[in-house]
Amino acid sequence: MTDTPRRGLTPIRIAQLLLLVAAVVLYVASRLTWVEVESFDELGPPKTIALTGSRWSTALVPVALLLGAAVVATLAVRGWPLRVLALLLAVVSAALGYLAISQWVVPDVALRATELAEVQLITLVGSERHYAGAVLTLCAGVATLVAAALLMRAAAREGATQGRYTTPGARRAALREQTQTPADGSSPVQTSEPMSERTMWDALDEGQDPTDGDTGPEPGPSSEGR
């Protein structure tokens, strides 16, 4: 039983490592060049403007900071807040996948590139897209999705563990709640909720009879005479 909490923490630690790696990868992707724009206005030599990931998609750096904050949050939250965090990370992973895939499937990036580079469309000579930043972003999205799945699994396992392993004191308290003795000294009243098999065994270990609801051994005639 002592090994169960350690096994439950292992997915959380793996998820923390994945989130940290994803945050670093996103920061690297934000520094890489995503699109290059070449313009010529006939007043000087042609100019080439490089648009980094942070300019092409302003959400990369905030999402990297969010993933870093999620690493810290996994140290503090458990139960249903951990599940909410896992769902949030799943949404973030979907957004990262959209950013990466859109870099590949968009037919023409020239119009948006001229707006970001502040270049007139009439002076545009050509544009070129680079895929390294998009690949890193997609990898970060996959790592975030795996981390979300691990956190959800850890939260579910924690809930199942808490429901399965109950301390003997808690079981005895449940036994006392199920078998209540009135204050006037009359016979005990058995509640409508049936006892579990484990609770019945605990009662037998303590010398009690769980079938009649007594919380202690019945006094016999010999004990009354003494």
From TrEMBL:
Residues 161-226 are annotated as: Disordered. Residues 203-212 have a biased composition (Acidic residues). Keywords: Membrane, Transmembrane, Transmembrane helix. The keyword Transcription does not apply. Residues 177-194 have a biased composition (Polar residues). Pfam families: Trp_oprn_chp. It comes from the Bacteria. Coiled coil: none annotated. The keyword Membrane applies. The chain crosses the membrane at residues 12-34, 54-77, 84-106, 131-152. InterPro entries: Trp_biosyn_TM_oprn/chp, Trp_synth-assoc_CHP. This is Tryptophan-associated transmembrane protein. It comes from Mycolicibacterium chitae.
